[in-house]
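ok so I'm stuck.
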Amino acid sequence: MARSLNKVMLIGHLGKDPEVKYTEKGDAYCKFSLATSETFKNNEGKEIDRTEWHYITVWRKLAEICGQYLKKGSKIYMEGRIRTYVDPKDNTKKYTGIEMTEMMMLDRRDQNQGGQDSMAGHVKDDSGQNDDLPF
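replied:
not stuck anymore, here's the structure
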């Protein structure tokens, strides 16, 4: 049995287009923000909308797929783990975000022509490598 668990599952919309970059070793990576929203009633019965922004990092082939198929506003299901990124130059905490390891595109393939659901968009990163951070 595992001693702990670090797993995140989110459904949301991209806040910006993913931009693929490459490390010195040639590994692809991209970053983007993901918005998740909820609606609830406050004590007075008024409906309140709340949006949370999540900072996502994606590596290797999955990063290239994100850069090719996703854009601002795309709806995705994603799984990943919480990561604290540290600047190797001075060993200071840079930010805490989510490293995406699995993704499913939830938008329609061609919304202009009434396409079909994109269930073939399920992709998983099984490399387990994430040593070369782009700082």
